[in-house]
Amino acid sequence: MSRFDAESFSINFFFLRKADNLAIFVEFSCLREARAQCSSSDIRITQTGTGQVIQGKPEWKVSVEKECSCNAYGLNLVCTGFQTVEPIDPALFRVSPSNPSFCVVFNGLPLPPSPGGVTFTYAWDTQYHFALASVLFKCA
């Protein structure tokens, strides 16, 4: 079932006159709007080792990117028990003041476009497995 707000309709009339005969051609077209929809599966979280050692612990680089054209904001990761000996810019990644089990990415602002997204590094004995807790999307 199609939604009316996701489609636009157009009717074009073409008048052709050949001698005294008039022909009218009607073209009806339905143009489906290219509306991008996003879901949590469009958020990609990747980690790689940097090869650096900070205070005797390996450094890890985390990238959080969106793989769709909508704005992704209010992004939180599950970070229960996360530790690092390397300071992280709190504008990029910080423990949520309302729930210490979650970490806020990019102050909850819309993620920058990919490639790039938001990237930060941390240093700990083992790689932490970050999981998406929540995200909101706004599609134009």
Task: Give an overview in words.
The protein is mainly β. The chain has one domain (40-138): Immunoglobulin-like (Sandwich). Helix content is 0%, strand content 54%. It has strands at residues 7-18, 21-32, 43-54, 57-66, 71-78, 93-95, 102-105, 118-123, 131-138. The strands form three sheets. A four-stranded antiparallel β-sheet has the order 6-7-5-9, with no helix packed on it. The radius of gyration is 25 Å and the shape is globular. It starts with 6 loop residues before the first strand and ends with a strand. Mean pLDDT is 80; it is low at 1-35.
What order do the strands of the largest sheet run in, or round the barrel if closed?
Answer: 6-7-5-9
Q: Would you tell me which CATH topology applies?
A: Immunoglobulin-like
The CATH architecture can be given as Sandwich
Approximately what portion of the residues adopt beta-strand conformation? Answer: over 45%
Distance between the termini: 22 Å
- The number of helices is 0
Q: What is the domain total for the residues?
A: 1
Largest sheet: 4 strands, antiparallel
What would you say about this model in short?
The protein is mostly beta strands and 140 residues long. Helices cover 0% and strands 54% of the residues. It has one domain (40-138): Immunoglobulin-like, CATH 2.60.40.
Tell me the layout of helices and strands:
Layout: E1 7-18, E2 21-32, E3 43-54, E4 57-66, E5 71-78, E6 93-95, E7 102-105, E8 118-123, E9 131-138
Antiparallel strand pairs: 1-2, 3-4, 4-8, 5-7, 5-9, 6-7
